[in-house]
Amino acid sequence: MDGSPALAPAGNIDEAASVSTLDTPALLVDLDRLERNIARWQLATDAAGVRLRPHIKTHKSVALAALQREAGAHGIAVAKVGEAEVFAGAGFDDIAIAYPVVGEPKWQRIAQLAQHAKITLNVDSTTAAEGISAAASSAGVTVHLQIDLDSGFGRCGVPAGNAGAQIALARLIEELPGVELDGVTTHRGLFFPGAAEMSRDVAGAHEGQIVVAAAERLRAAGFAVNEVTAGGSLTGAGVATVDGVTEVRAGTYVFNDLMQIALGAATHEDLALTVLATVVSVTGDDTATIYCGSKTFAGDSGVVGGSGLQLRGLAECVERDVVVQRMTE
Question: Which of 91, 129, 191, 229 lies 20 to 30 Å from 185, alpha-carbon distance?
Answer without folding.
Answer: 91
